[in-house]
Amino acid sequence: MCRCFVDAFLTRKLSLEEAGDKDSHYNDENLAYSVINLFAAGTDTTANTLQWSLLFMAKYPQFQDKVQEELSRVIGSRQARAEDRKNLPYTDAVIHETQRLANIVPMAVLHRTSQDVTFQGYFIKEGTCVLPLLTSVLYDESEWETPHTFNPSHFLDKEGEFIRRDASMPFSAGRRMCPGESLARMELFLFFTFLLVRFRFTPPPGVTEDELDLTPVVGFILTPSPHELCAVSRQ
Ligand code: HEM
Questions:
Q1: Where does heme bind (predicted)?
Q2: Domain 49-106+147-233 in CATH 1.10.630.10
């Protein structure tokens, strides 16, 4: 019976051992690191992005209104399914804009050149550490109309249809870009819509929207500073 990633890994390990392969990559150390990677790379990132999305919704009620109007009109009070995304362009744009402005992995992950390279006239020696600064793309003033402001229109055309933007790369780019992108996008869509169908997010009593502070806590991942928000039932 294969219930999960760990079962699949252990089954493969066993069959390789039975076939006499004692030196495969399917060993306990790699199993532990893979599980750690899945938790570290796959849980914090999505949870953080969701925190940012709720903070943006509480701070900008005019955008929350539009998301909730679209959700009520298209799916009503039921839970969204993956296939609903194409019919929810405004909601999709809000999630993309959340990822752009939240910029949670600003320096992607450290890479090292495997050989000497000349890139755009710059010589980079083999073995040099390279940090791809995603901030430079996500906040690029030549790409975005209002790079430093939350603006879902960045991802909408004149008819209100969702548009992809090349400069939207919160998962980085190239061969080593995030392998969890499609899973993360699906999770963000399902969790965000689930919450917004059921709740209205507001600042707590006595706090204004303007007082919600978007300054991130700086670390390897940019997280929102701790906030209290109210989740008011809509049903
Ligand atoms: C909002 C969610 C997420 C964001 C913004 C994100 C972003 C990133 C970024 C920027 C990188 C670095 C890519 C590079 O080296 O240039 C990365 C790597 C990685 N991500 Fe994600 N990620 C997310 C969710 C996930 C999920 C859900 C998983 C797995 C379940 C995952 C697994 C990984 C792994 C294993 C790597 C390392 C890949 C490698 O070094 O080859 N991530 N992610």
A1: 178
A2: yes
- The domain locations on the chain are 1-42, 49-106+147-233
Atom of ligand 1 nearest to the CA of 173: 16
Residue position matching structure tokens 């903070």 = 55
Q: Please state, in angstroms and rounded to a whole number, the distance separating the CA atoms of residues 134 and 167.
A: 9
- The pLDDT tens digits of the residues spanning 180-212 come to 999 999 999 999 999 999 999 999 999 999 999
Report which ligand 1 atom has the smallest distance to the Cα of 105. 10
ipTM of the complex: 0.98
C-alpha 146 to ligand 1 mean position (Å)? 26
For ligand 1, the distance from its centroid to the CA atom of residue 29, given in whole angstroms, is 21
> Which residues are near ligand 1 (CB < 6 Å)?
37-38, 41-42, 45-46, 49, 104-105, 108-109, 132, 170-172, 176-180, 183-184
